[in-house]
Design a protein that fits this description.
By secondary structure, the chain is an alpha/beta fold. It contains three helices and five strands, in the order ββαβαβαβ. Strands 1-2-3-4-5 form a five-stranded mixed sheet. Helix 3 links the parallel strand 4 and strand 5.
């Protein structure tokens, strides 16, 4: 399944999330960011101290965006969210989960 997000474990206790694409509650084409799979991938990072989140998304399902927001907000790592392109609609909700938000 192709996804528009990717988690990466970086240096010890650091991780990155690239969320590039539409946010949806169900995956029709296998490329939407869905809350259920997102939670599994987030948990697979394990315990890290810092998570950098990079977003370029037109948005999508607001209920899925709210669920992802809450998952990130609960996650104990310090979160810096970087808006790389656009964070529209539901993606703007996800951005607000950051402890620090960077938008050039």
């Amino acid at each position: 399944m192709s996804r528009f997000w990717e988690f990466k474990a970086l240096a010890p206790k650091q991780g990155a999330l690239h969320l590039y694409g539409p946010i949806g509650d169900e995956s029709w084409l296998g490329d939407e960011v869905t809350p259920a799979q997102f939670q599994k991938d987030l948990a697979a990072l394990g315990q890290i101290d810092r998570l950098d989140v990079f977003i370029n998304s037109p948005g999508g399902d607001v209920f899925a965006g709210i669920a992802i927001y809450h998952m990130l907000k609960r996650y104990p790592a310090a979160k810096t969210v970087h808006v790389d392109g656009i964070a529209a609609s539901a993606a703007s909700v996800v951005v607000m989960a950051g402890d620090r938000i960077v938008m050039p």
